[in-house]
Structures are given as C-alpha cells and as structure tokens.
Design goal:
Blueprint: H1 10-39, H2 44-67, H3 76-97, H4 104-127, H5 133-139
Helix pairs in contact: 1-2, 1-4, 2-3, 3-4
Length: 145
C-alpha cells in the first residue's frame, strides 16, 4: 500500500504536521514523567501508568486545541479511553521488548514512534472526528460506518 501525504486533504496535512510538533512536546513531557517515576523506584508499569495520567491532561489540551482546533471539554472521556488503550499497548510493548533489553528507558524510547502513529489515528478518527474525515478515511483505505 502506497501512502501519499500530498494527496491528503490540506486540513489533514496541517493536522499531521501540528501533531508531530505538539506530539514532540507531549512525548518529551510523557517521557520525562515516566523517567521521573521510574527513577523513584516504581515498577515500569506503575511509572508508565502515572506518566500516562499526567500526560492525558497535558496532551488533551495541546492536541485538542492546537492540532484539532477543538475546545470541547466533554471529549476528554473519549480521549481517556484512547489513552487507556495506548497505555495497555505501551505496557504490552515494554513487556515484549524486555526479551531484547531490560533497559526500560531504552524500550520506552523505542515504542514512541509506533504509539504516536496509533495515537494520531485514534485522536483524528475517534476523539476529534469531523465530518470531512470520512473522505480522509477513504483516502487512507480505512473502513468507516
């Protein structure tokens, strides 16, 4: 399957670029939270959970307002659901990667990009979904209802 960024709707292009910029900031914030809690001696899963909780509040504001131009606070519940899913995916990834390395600083770093891709897609098509997104879903060959 071929992905052509320039064939996407201009608003989606803008959102992807902003998501990468905002995501970089959010990722640094989340990674620093994880490193802080793990350095305190907490189990990697507990450190990831606490970092996720801190990140949810920070990320909801930055992602919602800057990337998707959405200030609807009620969407936090969907956002929390997406981030609980991402948390489970994160911890599962850390568990799977422990067979290659027990350095959880490194394995958390390795999971950042794949989780960011999943986070963008879920935020765009589940949390902050807009009417024109059906066209984008067609362009990405994603089934929709």
């Amino acid at each position: 399957m071929h992905f052509n960024f320039f064939a996407l709707h201009p608003q989606t292009q803008r959102q992807i670029i902003l998501f990468l910029i905002v995501g970089f900031i959010n990722t640094i914030f989340g990674y620093l939270c994880f490193a802080f809690f793990y350095t305190l001696g907490l189990h990697y899963a507990v450190a990831a959970f606490l970092a996720t909780c801190c990140g949810i509040l920070f990320n909801f504001n930055t992602t919602g307002k800057i990337v998707f131009k959405n200030k609807r606070k009620v969407l936090i519940f969907k956002f929390i659901g997406v981030y609980l899913f991402l948390f489970c995916l994160n911890v599962s990834s850390l568990k799977a990667l422990q067979y290659f390395s027990t350095n959880y600083y490194l394995t958390e770093f390795v999971t950042i990009i794949p989780l960011a891709v999943v986070a963008f897609l879920l935020n765009k098509f589940v949390v902050f979904k807009e009417k024109y997104d059906v066209v984008v879903m067609d362009q990405l060959h994603i089934k929709h209802s």
